[in-house]
């Protein structure tokens, strides 16, 4: 039986967590207004549909960050030396001159090896995904990922959320543009109270294959906030 592709698995997880957070948000809203709880299936469907549409791009974004800036790279100070494998070998070649004289020459031969760039990229990818004890945290790459995720990623996610939910609710372009202008900054500032810490923990302590699940779990609480915010749109 074929395994579920990681991007599909991540989307399914996001759907479950987003549905949970939206239901919790609706229950909190009913409690705050002192009204009996009645599930708004339209709002729930909109929130879930947005998760289905937004999770694949986010998955690809995180994958690109990790591929471009591997969080863990081979520790050359502790890794065993591979010089013995690269030692040139002495072989004997026999040549015959035009006069018929046989000459033996000893030459050095080195087996072909992949380019340094390809090998480094391959090792970096493997190490970053397995979090091997023979690797170490790459501070520079981790800082680059963090900065990109908290600037470009945060901005695109916020605009995507406001525009996506607005479109699903039937708003026109002018209304969506106004919402982006009025709500983006406050939503990003609110996000900075949570997601920078989550990103640091994720990039430094959580293996790559578990980062989306970790973010989704934390995202339940954030999803409650987004659901409450979306309810006011």
Automatic annotation (TrEMBL):
<keyword id="KW-1133">Transmembrane helix</keyword>
<feature type="region of interest" description="Disordered">
    <location>
        <begin position="108"/>
        <end position="133"/>
    </location>
</feature>
<dbReference type="GO" id="GO:0005778">
    <property type="term" value="C:peroxisomal membrane"/>
</dbReference>
<feature type="transmembrane region" description="Helical">
    <location>
        <begin position="189"/>
        <end position="206"/>
    </location>
</feature>
<feature type="transmembrane region" description="Helical">
    <location>
        <begin position="146"/>
        <end position="168"/>
    </location>
</feature>
<keyword id="KW-0812">Transmembrane</keyword>
<comment type="similarity">
    <text>Belongs to the peroxisomal membrane protein PXMP2/4 family.</text>
</comment>
<dbReference type="InterPro" id="IPR007248">
    <property type="entry name" value="Mpv17_PMP22"/>
</dbReference>
<feature type="transmembrane region" description="Helical">
    <location>
        <begin position="212"/>
        <end position="231"/>
    </location>
</feature>
<protein>
    <submittedName>
        <fullName>Uncharacterized protein</fullName>
    </submittedName>
</protein>
<dbReference type="Pfam" id="PF04117">
    <property type="entry name" value="Mpv17_PMP22"/>
</dbReference>
<keyword id="KW-0472">Membrane</keyword>
């Amino acid at each position: 039986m074929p395994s579920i592709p990681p991007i599909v698995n991540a989307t399914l997880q996001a759907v479950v967590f987003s549905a949970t957070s939206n239901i919790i948000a609706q229950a909190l809203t009913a409690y705050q207004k002192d009204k009996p709880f009645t599930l708004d299936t339209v709002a729930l469907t909109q929130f879930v549909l947005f998760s289905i549409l937004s999770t694949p791009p986010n998955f690809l974004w995180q994958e690109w960050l990790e591929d471009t800036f591997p969080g863990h790279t081979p520790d050359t100070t502790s890794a065993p030396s591979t010089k013995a494998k690269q030692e040139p070998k002495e072989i004997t070649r026999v040549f015959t001159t035009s006069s018929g004289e046989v000459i033996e020459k000893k030459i050095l031969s080195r087996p072909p090896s992949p380019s340094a760039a390809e090998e480094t990229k391959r090792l970096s990818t493997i190490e970053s995904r397995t979090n091997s004890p023979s690797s170490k945290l790459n501070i520079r790459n981790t800082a680059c990922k963090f900065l990109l995720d908290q600037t470009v990623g945060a901005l695109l996610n916020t605009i995507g959320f406001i525009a996506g939910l607005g479109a699903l609710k039937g708003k026109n372009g002018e209304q969506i543009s106004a919402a982006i202008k009025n709500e983006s900054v406050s939503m990003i500032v609110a996000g900075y109270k949570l997601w920078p810490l989550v990103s640091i923990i994720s990039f430094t302590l959580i293996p790559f294959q578990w980062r989306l699940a970790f973010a989704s779990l934390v995202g339940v609480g954030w999803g409650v906030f987004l659901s409450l915010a979306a309810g006011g749109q």
